[in-house]
# Entry
Amino acid sequence: MEIIQSIIIGIIQGITEFLPISSSGHLILIPNIFGWQDQGLAFDVALHWGTLIATLVYFRKDWTNIVRKSYLFKRFKNTKYQIPNTKSISNDQSKNSPNSLFQRGNKISQYPISNIQYLKSDLLFIIIIATIPGVIAGLLLNNYAETVFRNPLIIAGTLSVGAILLFYSDKNGAKKSDLKNLTLQMGIIIGLFQALAIIPGVSRSGITITAALLLGLKRTDAARFSFLLSAPIILGAGIKKFPSLLESGLDATIFIGVLVAAISGYLAIKYMLKYLENKSYNIFAGYRLALALVIIGWCLV
# Structure
């Protein structure tokens, strides 16, 4: 693989992993369009390490809060933390502790500020449970993902269906709930939808955002949970495929691709969340339909 191919594919991976337009679909189509040899699923998974880095870096404060709020962390620390009653904290105390998130007796513990401050549930536990369906699908359908599913016409079909579902959910979802209202049942449903992403063209972010919107989450919260949910599934896939990468050989093209994917992924997260503050997902649904038509026309030609 040439360096330029690695850079282009890395950019495509970083952007499309978080936009609901299917990263796997683009990674299969781009080599076909440019006449390149398919880089294979192992290299695609390697690029996911870049998007994993982007997720961990961008949401580093959120992950800190999620872990510290988790039951396992509190058991490990053998300390009971309670969410503070902000009305009971004096003005002087509030001024002295602007970043306070949890309260232990009269002592304020300093925690990083993030957009997930007052969670009613253990979000880490929800993320872990919601990841299980995707893991099972990956183990059972991995061979199909590497062969049968890597078909342009299948991608065109899944892009089209996904576009319709995304448009419907964005238009009809309540869009009133945020992450503090997320329940375990909602997490499991979103996780079941995520399992469908084993099929290229479905889009992991697209299908999980669709499910979250149908369950009533706000647009930005649906995207945020989708991005957080991506971390364990990407990590697991990366570990599983790492031996294949070692067999094929690690060279500069892989490291460059991962680095480019990390940078472009970070920027994709940042600007997509900003875009969704006052915009809908319709542009992504329209792009999916347009791309599906292009693929069908390209196959016919």
Notes: The first helix runs from residue 3 to 18. The radius of gyration is 20 Å. The chain has two domains: 3-59+119-300, 63-110. The beta strands are 100-104, 107-110.
